[in-house]
């Protein structure tokens, strides 16, 4: 009989093989679960990234501008202040916007850290109206000047929200917190000549930004009355003098002027369709303390003090170029007059309920001065002879002259400019040398001293 086969070896082998299979399958399982874990992690990260980019939380970021506007906005736009949307922030917003007098207004001032915006904000606050500022603090000119204006406003309990006109959710949020009775819309891309360098910034602020503001205002309940900054530049190459509101404005000389003119047409549309009360103010070369460094009177002062040459423009036929320079305090009175006489908007729920007020006014000085005259006044106030380089005006959007007829503004809200160029520039120079801590060779008899002057609004 054959001996039975020795199975012990094959059983051992089988057990060993099964052990190896188990180890192998466990390893496989481990490897596949690791892979699964990594893939899940990656998907989660991608999803988080996607939602963060497309739906940024309102409360976490002060600036949430639609991505397609990013290219229009200056890099400085992204400087941040306190987080928007929190309880502390809402408290500041409410406090700033609450009027302190009976029947006072609650005004949203856009461009509040700007030249005219800062002066108007102070004037409104001083008489007991509530003011909330909005400004993007862009770097078109030295933002530290805007910060200094902000410091001044903060001292007067005026809070400026740091944000952009194109930020719809932010504007909506402001309306959720405050029932504004009025908007004084002064935020804009200003400057005639800069439009050749950065045309898109004019479209972004003066057209897209304005439309965005009106879109939010039209659905507000109640709708606010809006007073906003147009410009004397809309008269373009008009030769009828003085410029009256009924004159032609369809031949602008710069893109800046064209965007302001577009603003006037846009205002007409929102008034017509939605019953928004709209008043456009055509400002004529506004100057004064805390002014804009991109304007001629300002950078001429700087250049004269530094002994640098200034370009003084002439027309092509060698005539003097002239401007109806208007002092800031006069313009502030005009802005407040326009706000005081603005009628209520008539729409509600985004629908017009009746005809609403639509107005346009010149706010000028009614007495043009040639640029040469401006330079002579500065020479005399600074007691320094300017190094003048008289050249023909380059084709840069400038117009040869401006001259306002202000009878409409006088009739409707008593607008009457009272400051001549010498008086206004004296106040400007006094502020300038104080602000920049300059000790110029200023004649005492010019009434300019170097003590640090206060804003005169
Ligand atoms: O009323 C307005 O709606 C506009 O006013 C202002 O524009 P303008 O009236 O052009 O003021 P501004 O630049 O100070 O030039 C003053 C004079 O100096 C001449 N000028 C200028 C530069 C130069 O180098 N040389 C020179 O002679 C120049 O030819 C001009 O005659 C605002 O900037 C603008 O934002 C808008 O608000």
From TrEMBL:
What does the record give as the reaction this protein catalyses?
UDP-alpha-D-glucuronate = UDP-alpha-D-galacturonate
- Which Gene3D superfamilies does the protein's record reference? NAD(P)-binding Rossmann-like Domain (3.40.50.720), UDP-galactose 4-epimerase, domain 1 (3.90.25.10)
**Localization (cell):** Golgi apparatus, Golgi stack membrane
Reply yes or no: does the keyword Iron-sulfur apply: no
Cite the GO molecular-function annotations of the record: UDP-glucuronate 4-epimerase activity
* Source taxon at top rank: Eukaryota
Q: What is its EC number?
A: 5.1.3.6
Q: EC class of this enzyme?
A: isomerase
* SUPFAM superfamilies named among the record's database cross-references: NAD(P)-binding Rossmann-fold domains
Enumerate the spans annotated as NAD-dependent epimerase/dehydratase domain. Answer: 107-344
Its transmembrane ranges are 35-55
Gene Ontology annotations for the cellular component aspect, listed alphabetically = Golgi cisterna membrane
| Pfam families referenced in this protein's UniProt entry, alphabetically | Epimerase
What PANTHER family is this protein classified in?
EPIMERASE-RELATED
Subunit structure of this chain's protein = Homodimer.
Official protein name in the record: UDP-glucuronate 4-epimerase
Gene source species = Cephalotus follicularis
